[in-house]
Design brief:
The structure holds two protein chains of two kinds. By secondary structure, chain A is an alpha/beta fold. Helix content of chain A is 30%, strand content 20%. Chain B has a nine-stranded mixed β-sheet with strand order 3-2-4-7-1-8-11-10-9, with helices on both faces. A two-stranded antiparallel ribbon of chain B has the order 5-6. The chains are: A alpha/beta, B alpha/beta. Chains A and B meet through strand 4, strand 5 and strand 6 of A and helix 4, helix 5, helix 6 and strand 5 of B.
Amino acid sequence: MTFLKRKNPILRTRLPTLPPAARSRVALGLTAAAALGRFELQQCRECGMVQYPPREACQSCLSVNLIWKVQKPDGELLAQTVLHHSNDLFFRERLPWRLGLVKLDCGPTVVAHLHAAVEQRVRVRAMLDRAGQAVIAALPSKESSAMADDRQLREFTCDPKQRKVLVTDGKTGLGQALVKALAKAGADIVWVGHTEPWKKFPGFDELKNLPQVTLLPLDLTDSKNVREAAAEIAGKVDILVNNAEYHRSFGIGNRQGVETARAEMDVNYFGLLRLAQEFGPAMRSRGADGKASAVAWVNLLSIYAHANFPPHGTFSASKAAAHSLAQCLRAEMRPAGVRVVNVFPGPIDDEWNQLLPPPKLAPDTLARGILGALRDGVEDVYPGDVAQEWLARWRDNPKALERELSA
Amino acid sequence: MVLAAPVTVPYVRYSIRAAHWWLARAFSELLKASNLKKEEIDGLTVSSFTLAPDTAIGLTQHLGLSPRWLDHIPLGGASGVVALRRAARAVQAGDAQVVACIAGDTNHVDSFRLTLANFSQFARDAVYPYGAGGPNASFAFLTAYYMQKHGATREDFGKLCVAQRANALRFDGALFKKPLTLEEYLAARPIAEPLHLFDCVMPCAGAEAFLVMSEERAGRLKLPYVRLLGTIERHNAFASDPVQMRAGWALERDELYQQAGAGPQDMDFVETYDDYPVISLMQLEDLGFCAKGEGPAFVRNHSFTWDGSFPLNTSGGQLSVGQAGAAGGFLGLVEAIRQLSGQAAGRAVRNAKLGLVSGFGMINYDRGLGSGAAILQKSE
């Protein structure tokens, strides 16, 4: 195994800087698409013109009837430059920096961050930069496994390779799939939280035998325990994956009392709050800590965070609360360049969704989706068919979805 | 219509003054040069990047002026030619009798970065977040593309820069006072490849100005003056070209030469807008001094010094004088007035009767949008 050379701990840790974040409102269309991993450009509904940079009107027919539409990402590299000087602190600290001028097959010419291995034909991607705003990156037209190692690309992605990761719950099927996938992806260390250290859970030995894994007693309902865990490792965590959740079925009428709902809130909402308070400040301070700095915080939410699913009504409410808090966390982590990735799966194929009909999301598939999001620089992840369908319905008409879910 | 009273307020690298100070100095120098009273100048154009939050109208109160004709011309490197065109029409139409065209900018230690970050909506959305290289990055693309398409070499661009430095050594107002050799040019540190240090203008503070009036009025004032024979402007030309290799001059040059009754072969010197040398080549091609793509051969055939075979940017251009913001768009015009009115001592182009001045401005996104040109004639 190779390790990145880490910073001399005696030296001052460099404070995080961000690339320029100001955008016009209309340009945030690129950010909205990039957050989901899509490459969309503005297109005129009247004449079909694809245009960039974003405008308030069609430059061809002056219609204001414009939409953001997925475009083919292929193009030709017209010219390239290597910056040895920048007027901005973020780039100044990262010079030299490669840029390209790319003529897209769909029409416009774009300025793009340029991957070191590009040839004349390129494929562009809209990615979120450390400021959380979309930028266009031009990558080799053929994907390769070494592609992700590009120095500039790593400034946009949160690839777990050579990074230290905390997975808050190793007991669940998803937790175990995540830990294995992270180890396989080249993470240096994976701390794996488990709530009841006196009990061996199924799969415990298999995880324990992975050379990257260190087990860590961690109960998100216990403030003192979270604080102790943070005191031990928060200053080293590059990626935090909060997959711990408490999930029971039923809505309001089928259960007496608030104990179950309170337990859901205690893990799903207050658990996130405790983690954020204890781990957030340390990760924020390490946003520019050498080549393997703190980069990402992943929250396992639910598609039900967007619209309540009455058969799992209190669970939905706890995830909606967590989603709202995650938006707050995202805003607070952004100045450090640490990305908050929210994952909105449909029902996971686990014991708590036993009565739901398929399709259900296999933990392996979900784990792959989360790693893909880290690698691709995406911040909102809707893995699997159910989540994708709900996302489409929600974006199309939230009120219709509310009625459909309560049918 | 004629131009008179060429004024340069000596440039400095950094200034603690505001743009208003530089514009005030330019205006008062115009009065000194013309012996006119403030009230006798009844028209005003103002060009400046750093005047915000003020515009031309605010400047009238700041300087106690009461013009009957006023224009704010925020077109960067095209400001000079465009201001001249507006002023000449105003005088021709009788809206004003004497128009002061002034341009100036200050340069604080951090003002260039702030100008870049908010230069335009497209720059803020689609260029500045990409390395914040400013115009260096945009012109690096154009230069790289031009080199690969037309076979230009660094030596070609270097030849222009070295010749302009030789010219600048004979202009008191130039900030660069050291001779430059091709070896030094080639050995300079890279800024945005293929651009190196001496390919890039240096931002500074300064101001330029001139007066526009009728020939009859200039005669009465006994001012040395030059005639305006023809002038054109064209903006956002060839918008669908994937990368800028030509601009508005290519569309309007026939009109320009027709107005002037002269052709490119008749020009005794040329002042291009030269924030980067590749743009000078583009102007020489588009204005018909050589065919498109033949810029490199043209460079190899000429010497470009004030006393050479094709005098170009005879005061040193922005590359050797400095780029005082919008005043950079006036530099060539002011120098052309000096050349054609006997005020270019020490670098006067021999027997110069006709000069061409071209302007180019506003890298809004990936290219310069504004272009313009004027042909000026000696008065006898």
